[in-house]
């Protein structure tokens, strides 16, 4: 064979080899066995194009918004957030990362929520793509922010990465770049602020490998900085921006700790784009002690209140203040709904805006039983925080004692406002869902569904129910579907502590079977924390096709004192937010 022929064959073999490299490396990001032998290496002139976001070279592409687990190859474990779950430590900002031993990379490892991460594209700078890495359990971001890292200063082990709170705009310490190494089929992950690599060292702390940042510069290679990514289906996660919004810790903020938490999007005049939040029993910022706690001998200041969020995307607590009632007869201007002389409480809940008016359902009664009466409050908006308030008493609704119409209020495309109520059954473990309606122009004229027709009086019999639920319930509307949210009984210390969703194309049902979407993992000093007041917030579109749900804690746990060292911790009387992917429930 001539030298020309040999040269031709060698060139063809090289072309074929390059084709194999490209074809064989186009795959979904997944895990590979540790210590895999490099099958292919990049030609020298292509080493500058190793980024995982360079799809044209045939390397794995990170999706712009997906869930992954991170496995350290050398230390053989899953990246997660450290801390004692029974003391809510995994929710705290500044928590260190840990590496928990798992199965071999590529195996069917069962990852805990604190070992799952949303990787989301944020920006491109100098042709380099940067992502945030958000923990599913805490909702906080992986960061090298040493300002929140006092417990782990930089030293011979390097800077220890931590989780930090979500803000309106991620900063450089919360941004990461993924570079793919085709030789080992692993990723190296660089922090934008420090330029260092995320690594897991075999040296252990309490039998767990140390997660740290090492090196500086792309040419420095080390096996402990090699990671594989396993893509998982989209999952629900804690929304830390929402949780942080309700951590109102300044004395001048008015209502700083409360339960309930219905939201009413506004569109009238100067209030367009704002959101009115409805609370029930509320503590005032003036009651906060210097340590940010409440005195155990103190009590909440108002039986209800409302706060006005300046924008649907503004989650800064200090930007949101109470509206106040003009001419408060009970000399509590921040308490919007008066407590009747014959009642102990006045608890507003679901509401809507019609023109310049906001209408809010309110339950009035004693103790924790069914309401003695119900009312419809009419609030007149203006461009400030002082609003006119009027109590209305629609016939049929006001005198209804069995059905509490606090579950939801929907302004439907069909021209009616639907109001959802519940009647407790099964000793607090189950309920029947009912529905009433009125025309927006006639808020005093309600009719009630009896399973076949609309009538002028409520029908509380189970035959008139449109659905069944667990212990508590909320109803809202989005994308042509009525959404039902219900939760397990949160006050009796049962191990069932889940949130369920169902949908219907009609306000009168039928609804799909309940689907479990989330498990509440909140503890009070090592014991189950009590929880309640589910609410759906369809107006808060975060651009990721996710539904915002909230629930509240209630200062008490199962078999543990409410107070500690003479103080009540406001954390346990504040709203918590979670996000549910639309696709989980067919939205």
Describe this structure in words.
- The chain has 587 residues and is mainly beta.
- The chain folds into two domains: 3-234, Trefoil (Acidic Fibroblast Growth Factor, subunit A), CATH 2.80.10.50; 238-585, Tachylectin-2, Chain A (5 Propeller).
- The protein has helices at 3-24, 240-245, and strands at residues 65-72, 77-81, 97-101, 117-125, 128-135, 141-143, 162-164, 176-181, 186-191, 197-205, 208-214, 227-232, 237-238, 255-265, 275-284, 294-295, 305-309, 321-322, 324-325, 345-354, 357-365, 373-380, 386-392, 404-411, 417-425, 430-438, 447-449, 454-455, 467-469, 472-478, 481-487, 498-504, 515-519, 523-524, 527-537, 546-557, 567-568, 575-581.
- The strands form ten sheets. Strands 1, 2, 3, 4, 5 and 12 form a six-stranded antiparallel sheet that branches.
- Strand 27 (447-449) and strand 28 form a beta hairpin.
- It starts with a helix and ends in a 6-residue tail after the last strand.
């Amino acid at each position: 064979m001539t030298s020309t022929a040999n040269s031709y064959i060698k060139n063809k073999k090289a072309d074929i080899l390059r084709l194999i490299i490209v074809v064989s490396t186009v795959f979904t990001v997944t895990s590979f066995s540790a210590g895999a032998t490099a099958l292919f290496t990049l030609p020298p002139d292509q080493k500058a194009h190793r980024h995982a976001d360079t799809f044209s070279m045939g390397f794995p592409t990170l999706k712009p918004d997906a869930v992954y687990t991170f496995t350290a190859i050398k230390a053989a474990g899953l990246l997660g957030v450290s801390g004692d779950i029974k003391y809510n430590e995994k929710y705290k900002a500044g928590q260190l990362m840990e590496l928990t031993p798992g199965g071999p990379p590529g195996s069917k490892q069962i990852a805990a929520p604190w070992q799952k991460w949303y990787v989301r594209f944020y920006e491109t700078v100098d042709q380099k793509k940067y992502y945030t890495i958000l923990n599913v359990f805490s909702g906080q971001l992986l960061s090298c922010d040493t300002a929140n890292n006092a417990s782990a200063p930089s030293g011979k082990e390097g800077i220890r990465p931590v989780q930090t709170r979500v803000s309106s705009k991620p900063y450089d310490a919360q941004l990461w770049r993924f570079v793919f190494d085709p030789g080992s089929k692993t990723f190296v992950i660089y922090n934008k602020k420090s330029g260092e690599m995320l690594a897991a060292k075999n040296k252990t702390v309490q039998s767990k490998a140390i997660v740290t940042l090492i090196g500086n510069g792309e040419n420095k290679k080390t096996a402990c900085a090699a990671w594989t990514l396993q893509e998982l289906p989209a999952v629900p996660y804690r929304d830390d921006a929402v949780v942080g919004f309700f951590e109102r810790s300044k004395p001048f903020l008015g209502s700083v700790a409360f339960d309930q938490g219905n939201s009413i999007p506004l569109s009238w005049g100067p209030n367009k784009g704002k959101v009115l939040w409805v609370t029930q029993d509320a503590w005032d910022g003036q009651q906060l002690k210097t340590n940010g706690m409440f005195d155990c001998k103190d009590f909440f200041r108002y039986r209800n209140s409302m706060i006005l969020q300046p924008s649907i995307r503004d989650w800064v607590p200090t930007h949101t203040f109470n509206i106040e009632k003009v001419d408060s007869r009970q000399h509590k201007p921040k308490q919007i709904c008066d407590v009747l002389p014959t009642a102990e409480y006045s608890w507003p809940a679901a509401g809507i805006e019609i023109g310049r008016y906001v209408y809010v359902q309110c339950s009035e009664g004693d103790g924790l039983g069914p309401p003695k009466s119900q009312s419809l409050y009419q609030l007149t908006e203006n461009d400030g925080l002082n609003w006119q308030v009027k109590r209305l008493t629609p016939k049929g609704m006001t005198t209804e004692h069995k059905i509490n119409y606090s579950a939801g209020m929907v302004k439907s495309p069909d021209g009616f406002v639907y109001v959802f109520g519940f009647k407790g059954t099964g000793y607090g473990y189950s309920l029947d869902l009912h529905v009433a309606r009125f025309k927006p122009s006639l808020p005093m004229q309600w009719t009630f569904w009896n399973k076949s027709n609309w009538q002028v009086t409520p029908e509380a019999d189970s035959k008139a129910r449109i659905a069944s639920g667990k212990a508590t319930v909320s109803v809202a509307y989005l994308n042509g579907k009525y959404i039902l949210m219900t939760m397990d009984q949160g006050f009796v210390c049962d191990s069932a502590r889940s949130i369920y969703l169902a949908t219907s194309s009609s306000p009168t049902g039928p609804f799909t079977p309940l689907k479990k979407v989330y498990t509440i993992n909140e503890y009070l000093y090592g014991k189950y924390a009590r929880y309640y007041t589910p609410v759906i917030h369809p107006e808060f579109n975060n651009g990721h096709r996710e539904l915002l749900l909230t629930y509240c804690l209630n200062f008490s746990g199962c078999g543990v004192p409410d107070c500690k060292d003479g103080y009540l911790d406001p954390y346990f009387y504040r709203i918590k937010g979670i996000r549910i992917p639309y696709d989980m429930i067919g939205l």
